[in-house]
Design goal:
CATH class of the largest domain: Alpha Beta
Order of helices and strands: HEHHEHEHEEEHEHEHEHEHHHEEHEEEH
Shape: globular
CATH superfamily of the largest domain: Type I PLP-dependent aspartate aminotransferase-like (Major domain)
Number of helices: 14
Number of strands: 15
Helix content: 40-55%
Strand content: 5-15%
Distance between the termini: 39 Å
Bound molecules: pyridoxal-5'-phosphate
CATH architecture of the largest domain: 3-Layer(aba) Sandwich
CATH topology of the largest domain: Aspartate Aminotransferase, domain 2
Radius of gyration: 21 Å
């Protein structure tokens, strides 16, 4: 049966960071680009139709976010995540990373400590530094198969005076979908030490069927009061280039401070296409998303099987969510530089190097599964062939 996600869409010559940007980043354009976290799939038809209709109209003057736009977000969060919000809690960001920066700016002071849990999405550290705050670490605990929150490490950082904690939920790159219990335990610690929780839930919709995402703020009224939740349709529906994200701030004082920061940077305006695409996706993208999740699940099964057959030296850390898979390559016995060189120049597969995510990522690589299945087959063949050529 033909599956829409099997289609190979040419992405070279579209100013794609993942494809065209490979040359600058990896000094080659011959590798399979499986690094940046976007998908090689077209967005859902209702989104394409809404955008096409708007293009037909032809006038792209200033725009604002409508009640329908805000309601589509509220309704999506309730339908998919049983998270009840009020539309008055919604604020805007031109992306999650800038949004995290604005939250840090609004709710902490220069010099404050902000906790992250490496290995973790590396722009967090950069943003903390750019706002002249100090990144402090509560690394995840790893038992060789699965990652866990290290509550003692988290408490030590909270105790040492950290003012905020960036929670990555689900967690990129290790693919954990935190359980309600884990979030509750961590949330109680944040409450006890008066720590603001910045919950980056950009991957919330991308969770495999066996798992369930719990929005941090939905767990307890008290958690709502100390947290900011950042979401976007960008990962879910492959709309990252439209630079439209959503920040949910139930605490009115925190919301006022956030809005002041948006004013400070003149960032309140809406992108016509981003707003339209968000609304169309949240209103009519649900069946497409369910198909996508099945396809990603099958891609994961394929990767797991092919690695076991052709390259058992690489251990796949089972993801519970996201379309990113954390590969434990330590058994290859290569140094950090040799491992990077092996993947990009010997195998011809462009991955995100594990050490980018913190020193805990040494010996790991992150692969992006949001591509046609044949690309995954080709990638494993390339990796195994390159490895066997060496030996
Ligand atoms: C955890 C996490 N946060 C944020 C982003 C990027 O968000 P944005 O493009 O909206 O800044 C990513 C993209 O990979 C991510 O994995």
């Amino acid at each position: 049966m033909v599956n829409r996600f099997d289609e190979h869409i040419q992405r070279f010559h579209t100013a794609s960071v993942k494809w065209d940007g490979m040359k600058q980043r990896f000094h080659t354009d011959k590798a399979l680009p499986m690094w940046v976290a976007d998908m090689d799939f077209a967005a859902p038809e209702p989104v394409l139709e809404a955008l096409a209709q708007r293009v037909q109209h032809g006038v792209f003057g200033y725009t604002y976010r409508t009640e329908e736009y805000l309601n589509s977000i509220r309704s999506w969060l309730f339908r998919r995540h049983r998270f009840t919000i009020d539309t008055s809690w919604i604020a805007h960001a031109p992306g999650i990373v800038p949004g995290v920066g604005f939250i840090i700016d609004a709710l902490t002071q220069v010099g404050d400590k902000v906790v992250i849990q490496p290995p973790v999405y590396y722009p967090f550290e950069r943003v903390i530094r750019n706002y002249q705050r100090e990144a402090v670490y509560a690394p995840l605990a790893f038992d060789g198969n699965r990652y866990h929150m290290d509550f003692d490490a988290l408490e030590r950082q909270f105790q040492s005076g950290a003012k905020a904690w960036i929670l990555c939920s689900p967690h990129n790159p290790v693919g954990r979908v935190w359980t309600e219990d884990e979030l509750r335990t961590a949330g109680e610690l944040a409450l006890a030490y008066h720590v603001t929780v910045i919950s980056d839930e950009i991957h919330h919709d991308l969770v495999f069927k066996r798992y369930r995402h719990t929005p941090f703020a939905s767990i307890d009224e008290r958690f709502k009061n100390i947290s900011v939740t950042a979401i976007a349709p960008s990962k879910t529906f492959n709309l990252a280039g439209l630079q439209t994200a959503v920040v949910i701030i139930p605490n009115p004082d925190m919301l006022i401070k956030y809005r002041k920061v948006l004013q400070k940077y003149s960032m309140e305006g809406a992108n016509t296409f981003g707003a339209l695409a968000l609304e169309a996706a949240y209103r009519s993208g649900e069946s497409w998303l369910d198909e996508l999740l099945d396809y990603l699940d099958d891609n994961l099964t394929t990767l797991r099987r092919l690695l076991a057959e052709q390259m058992p030296e690489i251990h796949l850390i089972e993801p519970e969510g996201t379309y990113l898979v954390w590969l434990d390559c330590r058994e290859l016995g290569l140094s950090k530089e040799e491992l990077d060189h092996f993947f990009i120049h010997e195998a011809g597969v462009a991955l995100d190097e594990g050490h980018l995510f913190g020193e805990e990522g040494n010996g790991f690589q992150r692969i992006n599964l949001a591509c046609p299945r044949t690309v995954i087959e080709e990638a494993v063949t390339r990796i195994a062939t390159a490895w066997h050529t060496r030996h």
